[in-house]
Design a protein that fits this description.
By secondary structure, this protein is of the alpha/beta class. It is 42% helix and 16% strand. The protein has 2 domains: 178 residues, Response regulator (Rossmann fold); 49 residues, no CATH class.
């Protein structure tokens, strides 16, 4: 079983998981490990995550693990997941503005999803999550990364819908082709449009597939069914223990408040 998972190369991918609920942080980290992602850096808030990403950008060698994918909760303090995403996409300090970002939240209503989308999120995952949810989101990130778009008002993954989905009510206002944009394939290959344009499309190589190795580049990221069948009930058992953990945490908090009074 371990060999099947290792052969896909996901053990070479480094994930940053940011979640202010310690119990949920452990559950998510354990679920990722069961899917074969063994290189996981865990943080309890966006501030610590930003500081760590700054270190990776400066290159501190083996002492600091470079990050390939960020998975972050939305509502946190002092730095929220939305602010972490905004910093990653807009600041000059991050190691890569193109880094895949998965937003996680129990408040997965339309307003929160649209906020995350407008700040350049790659994918959104609602709580409570299942192993299958995590797996499918990572599949999309690894196998079908969207090109990045730069305009005067936006930097992030292409938000245009696929041809299969079609525009809402048949009213797609965005340009159907790419002749109006500057297209970047690499630092050495750039195609410019015939007329000046403020739209840039980045069709970069699939870095995650490259890092996962030659086997991953030849086949889609598909885990054996038995991996998911084993991981899902383990997640459910951990989730069932959340109420006990929450009660113990609240009891401890109440005791601390009583002592402070």
């Amino acid at each position: 079983m371990a060999k099947d998972k290792a052969d896909l190369g996901q053990d070479r991918i480094s994930l940053m998981v940011v979640e202010d609920n310690e119990y949920m942080l452990d559950i998510l980290g354990n679920s990722l490990k069961r899917l074969g992602f063994s290189r996981i850096q865990k943080f309890k808030n966006g501030k610590d995550a930003v500081e760590y990403l700054k270190l990776t950008a400066k290159g501190y060698g083996a002492a600091v693990e470079p990050i390939d994918i960020v998975v972050s909760d939305l509502v946190m303090s002092p730095v929220s997941g939305l602010h972490l995403l905004q910093w990653l996409r807009d600041d000059k300090a991050p190691p890569s503005r193109f880094m895949p970002f998965i937003m996680l939240s129990g408040a997965a209503d339309r307003a929160h999803v649209e906020q995350a989308r407008d700040h350049g999120v790659n994918d959104f995952m609602a709580k409570p999550f299942s192993v299958d949810n995590i797996y499918k989101v990572l599949q999309r990130i690894i196998d079908a990364p969207r090109q990045f778009v730069t305009t005067q008002k936006y930097f992030g993954p292409d938000r245009r819908r696929s041809n299969k989905a079609g525009p809402p009510n048949g009213m797609e206002r965005r340009k159907p082709d790419e002749s109006h944009a500057t297209i970047v394939y690499s630092k050495d290959k750039v195609e410019k449009p015939s007329a000046p344009s403020d739209v840039w499309l980045f069709k970069l190589p699939n870095y995650l597939k490259q890092k996962m190795g030659s086997n991953a580049q030849r086949q889609p990221f598909v885990l054996p069914d038995e991996v998911l069948a084993t991981a899902e009930p383990q997640l459910q058992r951990e989730a069932e223990g959340f109420l006990g953990w929450a009660k113990e945490y609240l009891d401890k908090l109440s005791h601390q408040v009583a002592q402070a009074k």
